[in-house]
Automatic annotation (TrEMBL):
It is found in: Cytoplasm. SUPFAM superfamilies: PurS-like. The gene is purS. The keyword Ligase applies. Coiled coil: none annotated. This is Phosphoribosylformylglycinamidine synthase subunit PurS. It comes from Fermentimicrarchaeum limneticum. Belongs to the PurS family. GO terms for biological process: 'de novo' IMP biosynthetic process. HAMAP family: PurS. NCBIfam families: phosphoribosylformylglycinamidine synthase subunit PurS.
């Protein structure tokens, strides 16, 4: 059984509402923060290779128009 971590992030220039909201909240709390980016992470256990995980990302886990993803074998 293989285990992979998939991280999905917004592409540069795409609005990240969760990151912006968190940035505003941190500044309100007095933290000196210049930027916050959000990401979604998946831990996938499967009997498959990285090629299949890539297919999962392209078909379901990310929106290729506005998001990038990276795959890390654990």
């Amino acid at each position: 059984m293989a285990k992979y971590k998939v991280e999905v992030t917004y592409k540069p220039g795409v609005l990240d509402p969760e990151g912006k909201s968190t940035l505003g909240a941190l500044k309100t709390l007095g933290f000196n923060v210049s930027d916050v980016k959000s990401l979604k992470a998946y831990i996938i256990e499967c009997q498959c290779d990285e090629k299949k995980v890539d297919e999962m990302c392209r078909k379901l886990l990310s929106n290729p128009i506005i998001q990038n993803y990276s795959i890390h074998k654990l």
